[in-house]
Write a structure and sequence with these properties.
This protein is an alpha/beta fold. The chain is 29% helix and 23% strand. It contains eleven helices and 15 strands. The protein has helices at 5-8, 18-21, 54-57, 61-66, 101-104, 193-196, 207-215, 232-241, 257-274, 293-312, 344-365, and strands at residues 25-29, 36-38, 74-79, 83-90, 107-111, 118-123, 132-138, 151-156, 163-171, 176-177, 184-191, 217-223, 245-249, 280-283, 318-321. Strand 5 (107-111) and strand 6 form a beta hairpin. Helix 9 (257-274) runs parallel beside helix 10 (293-312). The chain is globular and about 60 Å long. The termini are far apart.
Length: 366
């Protein structure tokens, strides 16, 4: 017997249509208004949001597909509207047994910025075959501030889903303006499905998403599920983006230790050549149990060797995080959904560990 939970608990029922909930709503195309789009190559040459230029994404079929999944993508703006809503058209739905649609294909709405930034709404399709989805929420101002006050709004895009269109809804008598500057520049993350955000329950709960919220920084997520192989073309692209900080982690996706050894330092060298003073954080896999301690240690040592050789050559802007230290021992078995991919607890642990190094870097610049 099929059970319709929304008939028992109204909190599970789909939201009413936007025009019903917000009669004064006015929609803006996210690419044709004052909103800022970050963490993406913007709207790709073929009219689809993408994390990579179309030609670069074709270095292998997997990356061509995965580049359309918008992990780390953000749309930011300021408004004095009493509510904010979105309407999005999906490119696809990536359905997984161990990751909810709220994380794989959903968007999130946050208001305010910096340490005051807070989550107010998750927006997601109800059925996997829905082409469009929409949702929104009233904005409760902190300290009972009047609704005329402007607030920053951030829309986090899906971790494992693509969009062809995204519209922003605000009150017709309100303004949509460019966002406030962020406290820090771009932190770029390159790596595996864990980097991409598998398997967070919401788009902003990936570890880079948590870092973006904790430290008010821009992020660029180049995590490619099962497909980050240390290709020199990707290294060249990263080098040309000139991020403020680069977090370098593709241990999981290197098919063998030999492949990792053959590609890890050359990839770093390409990025470093065009960014001689950029801080680089090397990181190994968090879960040795997936391949065994001996092989995991070997791979960690390969990554550590790139780090130590850089230090020996006089590089003062490199850092190393042993992935085995990312999850506390007493919480380790609770930090993943399948022994490999972090859940929200695991991602929070990762964000705190990586965040501690980011704080060290930023403090040194003061």
């Amino acid at each position: 017997m099929s059970l319709h939970i929304e008939k028992i608990d109204k909190n599970f029922a789909p939201s009413e249509a936007l025009v019903t909930r917000f009669p004064t709503i006015k929609m803006y195309n996210s690419i044709d208004c004052a909103a800022e789009i970050s963490g993406l190559h913007h709207k790709g040459e073929d009219g689809i949001f993408s994390r990579l230029p179309l030609e670069l994404s074709k270095i292998n079929p997997s990356i061509e597909n995965l580049s359309r999944y918008l992990a780390g993508g953000r749309i930011r703006f300021r408004t004095n509207s009493p509510f904010v809503a979105i309407k999005a058209k999906k490119l696809n739905t990536f359905y997984m047994r161990h990751m909810p649609l709220s994380g794989s294909t959903g968007c999130e709405i946050y208001v305010d910025s910096g340490k005051d930034m807070r989550f107010i709404k998750m927006c997601c399709c109800i059925r996997t075959d829905d082409l469009w989805f929409e949702d929104g929420a009233n904005i409760a101002r902190k300290d009972d501030a009047p609704n005329s006050d402007f607030v920053d709004v951030t829309i986090a895009l899906p971790l494992y889903g693509g969009l062809t269109d995204l519209y922003i809804g605000i009150d017709e008598n309100s303004q949509l303006l460019p966002p406030s500057p962020q406290s820090h520049g771009m932190v770029l993350f390159y790596g595996s499905s864990i980097t991409q955000g598998g398997c967070a329950c919401r788009a902003g709960n990936s570890y880079d998403g948590i870092i973006a919220k904790m430290y008010d920084c821009a992020i660029y997520n180049l995590g490619f599920s099962g497909s980050a192989k240390g290709e020199p073309e990707i290294a060249e692209y990263i080098a040309d983006l000139h991020p403020e900080i680069f977090v370098y982690d593709y241990d999981h996706n290197a098919p063998t230790a030999e492949h990792l050894e053959a590609t890890h330092k050359p990839f770093f060298d390409i990025v470093r050549a065009k960014n001689p003073d950029m801080p680089v954080i090397f990181m190994s896999r968090p879960m040795a149990e997936t391949i065994g301690a001996k092989l995991s240690d070997r791979r960690r040592d390969i990554i550590y060797k790139t780090y130590t050789e850089a230090v020996a050559a006089g590089d003062k802007n490199v850092y190393f995080i042993d992935g085995a230290s990312l999850f506390p021992d007493d919480l380790r078995e609770y930090c993943t959904v399948d022994g490999s991919h972090p859940n929200d607890l695991g991602f929070m642990c990762m964000a705190k560990s990586v965040g501690a190094v980011l704080e060290q870097i930023w403090d040194a610049k003061k």
